[in-house]
Fold:
Amino acid sequence: MNLFGFLGLPVSMSVHGPQVDKLVYYVHYLMFALFAGWLAYFLYTVFKFRKSANPKACYTGAKSHASSYIELAVASIEIALLVGFAVPLWGGLVDKFPAEKDATVLRITAEQFAWNTRYSGKDGIFGKQDVKFLSTSNPLGLDNSDPAGKDDITAPLNEMIVPLGKPVITYFTSKDVIHSFKVVPFRITQDCIPGLSIPLWFEPTKVGDYLINCAQLCGNSHYFMKGVFKVVTPEDYEKYMAEKSKSGGGAVSFE
Ligand SMILES: [Cu+2]
Structure:
């Protein structure tokens, strides 16, 4: 797959990752072929049409149709990449979501300069949120009178945890400016936009701690907007969540 050896991408840790990598590599191979082809052609013309060999300008120009055929071949490869790789990838990942009951569902709210994560708890229903409830003691604008929110779980700032072996569905929004949630090993990047709840799904393939970056310049401490995405075994996940449910909501530490 990767013909350039040491120039490879970071190891993929999600089910769809290899598909993204394949597309990235193929596009680069095409671009490399175009670069090499154009460079060779340029050097050839510089040599062939040098002044000493062509004292008189030629006004007829090229008569061959080779360039049109090459152009056609490049366009065909581009169409093949689009139809054969990009469209199926988009169709599977963006259009076909797994059922929420078979997935870990997170609500991630970005803010300058942190990531807030909530879980719906045992009932599988998130409590209501509204900007009118926003305050320093209620930074996510939770409706405390909503019974569905009683068992909701708030993760510590900049941390989230999911079990291995299950798809993850995340709903992204932002409290202030546009942020972008990026975890390179999962091959996911999603803008978080105030006023919108944007879903994304993926499935991690390995237990570990993964770095979350904000991929959208969002202010003076943008560089500082990092987080940890923890993937643990289903047993460990159950343990964390059971511990959390006992204490009845609030922030749970995943250490
Ligand atoms: Cu940000």
Observations:
- The longest helix spans residues 17-48.
